[in-house]
Design brief:
The protein is mainly alpha-helical and 331 residues long. It folds into 2 domains: 146 residues, Helix Hairpins (Orthogonal Bundle), CATH 1.10.287; 178 residues, no CATH class. Helix content is 64%, strand content 2%. Helix 1 packs antiparallel against helix 3 and helix 7 runs parallel beside helix 9. The longest helix has 43 residues. It is elongated and about 90 Å long. The N and C termini lie far apart (62 Å).
């Protein structure tokens, strides 16, 4: 029984430490435990909210998630130390040299991780002194890493909300983005907007890779939801490339920067997420407003989207649905 407690306690300790290091230092997404828990928690929040993107519960989900991640790290480390201490009845003694009870060992585990150092209980021999030191340093490092992790996370969340607001200024639908961009002659001002937005989107992508938890900070304001806005911009770029008449089209090199940023966004989210992507294509874009302005190709009978573009549209459909919205909200 003692060996089993040692094995379980060691596995928990190593797993949590690796998860903390991967989440806070790797800049390549969250650890296995943090990532899977985050997605399960988000699924629960979606279900409880009725998949309503306007739900205040979803708007608070990211805040709750950060608190729960810290609690999981702390409680798991405390549990691992408690299990190790339970493997030896004399591992911890009180001031009278009487072995501590199970409840007292649990208390000891908590205050060692918090580095309080009260001293009413002490390890009984050198082995348990070394293990106590190890967990004290782990607790100290956990506190430091949590602070250094969550501060940039909050900064990334602010930038994410700022990006959503900036993207919303382009238009409330893919058609409106194009109509606002076209001045009757060219897309000169739109090109300048795209350069600025490309940089902001690339920064958001790298923040998303380093801190995947920001994906769960949901904005319940539909007009400024970053997921909806990026999906909307992607649809507009697809229409610009494939559907407009030659005199209303835009040279490919002038949208290359935003296409690169959008492709990078797709790759990053695919890499760091555990989302099961929807295997059906979204509905075809509504082009009635562009048709009224005679901006469409004369031979446009359908949508000549490549297989890669259709896969990207499926990707955005999945993101929109998993953020509590519907595809019609994009339009």
């Amino acid at each position: 029984m003692a060996y089993l407690l040692i094995v379980i306690g060691t596995i928990i300790y190593v797993s949590i430490v690796l998860d903390i290091l991967k989440t806070t230092l790797s800049m390549q997404g969250g650890g296995w435990l943090t990532s899977n828990f985050s997605h399960l928690f988000w699924k629960l929040m979606l279900k409880l909210s009725g998949r309503n993107g306007k739900s205040k519960l979803l708007a608070r989900a990211g805040f709750y998630l950060l608190i729960l991640i810290i609690l999981i790290w702390v409680s798991s480390l405390a549990l691992s130390l408690f299990l190790l201490l339970q493997s030896d009845i004399d591992s911890v003694v009180n001031s009278a040299k009487i072995p501590a009870s199970a409840l007292e060992k649990l208390y000891y585990s908590g205050y060692i991780l918090s580095t309080l150092g009260i001293g009413d209980f002490t390890p009984s021999n050198n082995l348990w002194r070394i293990i106590t030191d190890l967990y004290s340093f782990t607790g100290l490092i956990l506190i430091t890493m949590s602070v250094t992790y969550f501060i940039p996370v909050l900064s990334a969340i602010i930038k994410q909300r700022k990006l959503g607001i900036n993207l919303s200024s382009l238009g409330n639908s893919p058609q409106e983005i194009i109509l606002n961009a076209w001045n009757g002659i060219d897309y000169d001002f739109f090109k300048l907007q795209l350069l600025t937005l490309s940089d902001a989107l690339l920064e958001h992508n790298q923040n998303h890779r380093a801190y995947p938890v920001i994906h769960f900070f949901h904005n319940n304001d539909k007009e400024h939801s970053v997921v909806l806005q990026i999906a909307r911009l992607h649809e507009a770029i697809c229409i610009l490339e494939k559907c407009l008449s030659p005199e209303c089209s835009i040279p490919k090199q002038e949208i290359s920067s935003i296409k690169t940023a959008l492709n990078n966004y797709i790759n990053v989210v695919r890499e760091v997420s555990n989302i099961n992507f929807i295997n059906s294509s979204p509905i075809t874009p509504d082009l009635n407003m562009l048709k009224e302005k005679n901006m469409l190709r004369s031979n446009l009978n359908g949508f000549d989207f490549s297989e890669t573009v259709q896969e990207d549209r499926q990707f955005f459909l999945t993101l929109v649905v998993n953020d509590g919205w519907e595809w019609k909200d994009v339009f």
